[in-house]
Amino acid sequence: MTESETLEQEAKAKTAAALPDAEENSAQKQDIEGATAMDDMGLSQSVDAENQYITFTINDEEYATPILTVQEIRGWMKTTPLPNTPVYVRGVTNLRGNIVPVFDLQARFQNVLTEVTDRHVVIMADIRGRTIGLLVDAISDILTIESDRIQPPPDASMTVETQYLDGLVTAGKRMVAIVNIAKLFDMKMIDELQQSPA
Fold first, then answer.
1. Which residue has the higher pLDDT, 89 or 46?
2. Which contacts of 110-114 are long-range, i.e. CB under 8 A and separated by 24 or more positions?
3. Strands 121-127 and 52-58, bridge-based pairing
4. What is the predicted pLDDT for the residue at 19?
5. Which residues contact 136 (CB under 8 A, 6 or more apart)?
6. Inter-residue contact 183 to 75 (CB < 8 Å)
7. Alpha-carbon distance 63 to 153, whole Å?
8. Helix or strand run (H / E) with residue 139
9. CA 198/CA 181 separation, integer angstroms
10. pTM as predicted
């Protein structure tokens, strides 16, 4: 099997895993299926998984993260709140026997808690070998972004601090900010949260 074929299979597997379990809220499942179906996004036609990014929205802004870091996408699930944690820590949840901290990206960027509805989703992402959940408004697209298309972020006019961005890219008429998730959260805090009971 060639490297391109291997990357394509990995990308397909990650997008297939993005669909929630059958027993989850049916309306939420329809929303996520509509947002992440491979045929709708053209992912099945791409073999360059290293340049694939999944995009998501927070309020009216669109962000992206590499698809190879995404394990799955789920509807909002119950979390156990924890004391003495930053406002953006929604708590921890038990995912197939593993304790996963869930972070509210709107609160992380804007210090305002998300008012969660059935339409919100949680991106399960791998950060340096740890699984974390990222609460976002919705999944919007999957893009193939070549490195030469990525522009440096401006010094101002962004909701998120530029130190957490790897750059900006134009997708049609949209401006998408590429977020470096690993820079957003302290790894020591993630390790401590994963020792908490869910």
1. 89
2. 110/59, 110/159, 111/87, 113/87
3. unpaired
4. 38
5. 56, 57, 58, 63, 105, 106, 120, 121, 122, 123
6. no
7. 12
8. strand 138-144
9. 23
10. 0.74
